[in-house]
Write a structure and sequence with these properties.
Radius of gyration: 19 Å
Strand content: 15-25%
Number of helices: 7
Largest sheet: 5 strands, mixed, barrel
Structural class: alpha+beta
Mean pLDDT: 75
Helix content: 25-40%
Strand order of the largest sheet: 4-5-6-8-7
């Protein structure tokens, strides 16, 4: 399995001194469900940059795959797992911060170190030494094998939705991930809660936008994400009930804008 460079990452990911790297827009940061074959056959950046694009034109940034563990190698600083989903094989890499990771994160990671275990991976597509891999931000065992079928349906739905928007000439720049009805309300701009949340994130729904803002703000304070109870408390001051907040969090999780971390009650913003 390929190794890390000695700069704390894979390949040269740094920005030259004196230059400011432009922030990616929300469209490019949308979580996209894909198969491994889509990653392998995606087009590289013709300009020599780091962008990798699917054949349909979507830029790969954050992706989700579901597959079976074929091999794993654990070192003191990193973990590498080979995942196969029936369409191809890809390496998934994640850093291990000894002393910094909480026990729950370490346990979730350790559970995935089993050959033939089925796992879900969320992370960024990277390329090092001509070989693509996923730098994982979240990896965990599947709760049920039904997630395999559900993931394949998400992949098909995501592609179909993007194609329809592309053909209609509307919403191409709105970001198509796992969304169901993202950005359908084009008649009015959503109210943002101080973080300039774009329409494709909250779907034009103010409680969704408020939940995203809260999760981004509170989740940035640690690696384990923010507890649902903390989100409820944070948004109560804005007049949202617990039921509204829980529904919004569930919706955003299904859309792929947020993802669960150490358990099903902790969430992090997918950026």
């Amino acid at each position: 399995m390929s190794g890390y460079d000695n700069q704390g990452g894979f390949g040269s990911q740094g920005t030259p001194s004196g230059q400011t790297k432009a922030r990616r827009n929300y469209d490019e940061q949308t979580l996209i469900p894909v198969t491994i074959k889509q990653i392998i056959t995606a087009d590289g950046d013709p300009t020599g940059g780091n962008d990798i694009s699917l054949k349909d034109g979507r830029t790969l940034y954050m992706v989700k795959i579901v597959g079976c563990v074929r091999a794993h190698e654990q070192k003191s600083t990193n973990l590498t797992i080979e995942i196969e989903d029936g369409t191809g094989l890809v390496e998934v890499k994640t850093w291990m911060n000894e002393g910094d990771d909480c026990s729950a994160v370490a346990n979730l990671r350790q559970e995935c170190c089993q050959d033939y275990a089925f796992v879900r991976v969320i992370g960024q597509v990277k390329e090092f030494d001509g070989k693509r891999h996923i730098q994982a931000t979240d990896i965990r065992l599947l709760g049920t094998k039904n997630e395999i079928t559900f993931h394949l349906l998400e992949v098909a739905y995501s592609f179909d939705k993007y194609q329809k928007r592309k053909e209609s000439g509307s919403g191409i720049g709105m970001g198509v991930g796992m969304g169901y009805g993202i950005g359908n309300n084009m008649s009015s701009m959503p109210k943002t809660m101080g973080a300039n949340v774009s329409m494709d994130q909250g779907g034009g729904n103010t409680v969704n936008d408020a939940a995203i803002t809260s999760i981004r703000k509170l989740g940035s304070q640690n690696d384990t994400g923010v507890n649902i109870h903390t989100i409820v408390q944070d948004l109560a001051s804005q007049g949202y009930s617990e039921g509204e907040v829980r529904n919004a969090v569930s919706h955003l999780s299904n859309e792929g804008h947020i993802y669960s971390t150490i358990d099903e009650n902790h969430f992090q913003f997918a950026e």
